[in-house]
Design brief:
It contains no helices and eleven strands. A hairpin with a 4-residue loop joins strand 7 and strand 8. The model has no long low-confidence stretch (mean pLDDT 94). The protein has 115 residues and is mainly beta. Strands 2, 4, 5, 6, 9, 10 and 11 form a seven-stranded mixed β-sheet that branches.
């Protein structure tokens, strides 16, 4: 079993920055990818950014050039640096951990961007 603890959400003005963290603990087994998804009210959960075990990264078109995903293997933690935030980035952000044994989700952290 893998436990994910997210932090770093909050309220920020448009144009500002936030950094999300997701720390994985427990029986972490052969992680294949870690990533961030988001879900706004009334909308489907969508991919924001993902980093594979080999280091390759993928981003949603809407965040390219503004968000950066990174990973600290020693701490088993993934980060999402969010710059130039827009009101449309307002959402609950979820960390996702994918391993050969299954998929695990964090509890979510709220990000609110005011105009």
């Amino acid at each position: 079993q893998v436990q994910l603890v997210e932090s770093g959400g909050g309220l920020v003005q448009a144009g500002g920055s936030l950094r999300l963290s997701c720390a994985a603990s427990g029986s972490a087994f052969r992680m294949t990818a870690m990533g961030w998804f988001r879900q706004a009210p009334g909308r489907q959960r969508e991919l924001v950014a993902i980093i594979q075990s080999g280091g390759s990264r993928n981003y949603a078109d809407s965040v390219k050039g503004r968000f950066t995903i990174d990973r600290d293997n020693a701490k088993n933690t993934v980060y999402l640096q969010m710059n130039s935030l827009k009101p449309e980035d307002t959402s609950v952000y979820y960390c996702k951990y994918t391993s050969l044994r299954g998929v695990y989700w964090g509890q979510g952290t709220q990000v609110t961007v005011s105009s």
